[in-house]
Design goal:
It contains 18 helices and no strands. By secondary structure, it is mainly alpha-helical. Mean pLDDT is 78; it is low at 1-83, 123-138 and 518-524.
Length: 529
């Protein structure tokens, strides 16, 4: 119930349309008239009807299989309407889509490899001497922000549960609400990058900027592409229906291989609208990758943003004013409530939830928060009770999540604004101040525990791979996809991908670029899930 009928059926709501409904009715009328005047024998008509009936029955069986498959994933079906607006999907075979996606990945490699020719390795320095600030010279060690690592572990697990609630106790289901953790991750990404490089590089020149961007892409992109490849192979091997969002739209595969869904979160026409997010470009071809695509583009922008903050945010007053302005700009789309971007709505062609320019504002807010911490007087930085302040700010932020969800009624339907960016900016800032002294209240101690901090090293691989891992588990054995085995298995896959893929690739790239391995765990890990 609620699914669009196949195109050959005579009943059921019509699928999304790329051209106006009246025009299609007119064209169908012309086609029926031509067929009626050209028909000469009733036997031909009966054969045609029997063939159409067989096609309808086979299509109905396919729909039933898709209903069962999506029901196990707790996907809520909705009916499409004749007013739905979308862009036409690519008419191609699945294998051709795979070839096109591979060529897009090769194109990215072709653009990155020449950068290795341009970037100079740092000159050898005598023993005891330090290199240039723009060649990643050693700097005074900043403390690892363990509490933020612990938060990443918990919130990545929360995101996994959002996308797979099978087996979760009924009492806990109201606590699992989609969308709001992503604001924290974008703020965290900007905060940690600025925290790491603010005392390390005064200004990025072309050479150092290219090196930092290549390093970030080398960490994020391989697992992103591998997850897409595993999803594609799973679709071919398992024989699951090629429908949205796992397989369709076909346009998503080559576009997402180039990280373009961050700028093209548009709705594409698919055969049936099984789910409220069906057809959106960012949710096809491993839907979790939209976050990685946004972070890659933000990492490309980071050196320029870093230089601007270094030049203009030396005053604490200017820095705080910039934070307020950025947060207000982020609220504008949600405040205006633009129906043209409503998620799953009849006019929802562009969905701002995963639109990189919107998320960039959260990233910049995190950068500005890190700069505000740097601008604080040394006397305040040395205060020993920041760990207790962290507990207070964290509790207030969790209260803000409750207010945002239950009273403001914020959700992921439009731009993903939960009005929590200011809370996460405060959490990151206070966590950085508390990291030097340690201790603090029970929340700060718990989030800084060894287990959570250790698991944080595998959080990105866990996040980017949890979609196809859950789908594969459900296909093999329905029992293993249920909580808590689903969560444990997803983290195990993340561990394997980190050890055998992410870390070796990053080490090879760092050797080629001449990076010195002096970074702390927070330097390289805390900027992404």
């Amino acid at each position: 119930p609620g699914f669009s009928a196949p195109r050959g059926s005579a009943s059921g709501p019509l699928p999304p349309r790329a051209i106006p409904c009246k025009m299609k009715i007119f064209l169908r009328g012309v086609l029926i008239a031509v067929l009626w005047t050209g028909s000469t024998a009733s036997t031909d008509s009966s054969r045609s009807n029997s063939g159409a009936l067989r096609s309808h029955r086979s299509a109905s069986l396919a729909v039933e299989k898709e209903v069962d498959f999506l029901a196990e994933l707790h996907v809520q079906p909705v009916a499409a309407t004749s007013d739905d607006v979308c862009i036409p999907d690519w008419k191609a075979s699945l294998k051709f889509v795979g070839i096109a996606s591979s060529l897009c990945v090769a194109l990215v490699f072709a653009m990155i490899i020449p950068c290795f020719m341009v970037v100079r390795r740092p000159p050898a320095t005598p023993s005891g001497a330090s290199g240039s600030r723009n060649d990643d010279a050693p700097r005074p060690k900043r403390p690892t922000i363990s509490s933020l690592d612990g938060m990443r572990t918990i919130l990545v697990t929360y995101v996994v549960l959002i996308h797979n609630k099978l087996g979760v106790p009924q009492e806990a289901l109201p606590l699992i609400v989609e969308g709001w953790p992503m604001q924290f991750f974008f703020v965290l990404s900007g905060f940690v990058l600025r925290y790491v490089y603010e005392g390390k590089v005064a200004y990025f020149d072309t050479n150092s900027a290219v090196k930092v961007v290549i390093r970030r892409v080398a960490r994020l992109a391989p697992l992103y592409w591998i997850s897409m490849a595993f999803t594609f192979i799973f679709i071919l091997v398992s024989g699951v229906p090629c429908s949205a969002p796992l397989c369709r739209p076909f346009l998503a595969w080559p576009a997402n291989s180039l990280f373009l869904q961050a700028f093209l979160p548009v709705r594409v026409c698919v055969n049936k609208d099984e789910w409220i997010g069906s057809g959106y470009m960012q949710f096809g071809a491993n839907g979790s990758g939209w976050f990685t695509a946004c972070i890659i583009w933000m990492s490309i922008c980071y050196p320029g943003l870093h230089n601007l903050l270094t030049k203009y945010c030396k005053s604490q007053l200017v820095c705080i004013a910039a934070i307020v302005l950025v947060l207000l700009c982020r609220m504008v789309p949600e405040g205006l409530h633009p129906l043209w971007s409503e998620y799953g709505g009849p006019r929802g062609v562009l969905h701002l939830y995963s639109f990189a320019p919107m998320r960039l504002l959260e990233f910049i807010a995190g950068m500005l928060s890190a700069q505000a911490v740097t601008n604080l007087p040394e006397r305040l930085k040395e205060w020993q009770y920041w760990g207790w302040v962290f507990d207070f700010v964290m509790a207030a932020s969790l209260g803000g999540v409750y207010v945002s969800l239950h009273y403001v009624k914020a959700d992921a339907r439009i731009s993903g604004e939960y009005y929590l960016s200011s809370c996460w900016c405060l959490v990151c800032a206070v966590a950085a101040l508390a990291a030097k002294h340690g201790g603090g209240g029970p929340m700060h101690r718990a989030l800084s525990s060894w287990l959570l901090v250790t698991l944080a090293k595998y959080s990105y691989a866990t996040y980017i791979s949890h979609g196809f891992t859950s789908a594969a588990l459900m296909w093999m054995d329905k029992r293993t996809v249920q909580f808590p085995w689903s969560v444990l298995t997803v983290w195990l896959v993340g561990y394997v991908l980190t050890i055998w893929m992410e870390q070796p690739v990053l080490q090879i790239v760092e050797r080629q670029l001449g990076f010195r391995r002096t970074a702390t765990p927070s330097d390289t890990k805390a900027a992404t899930p």
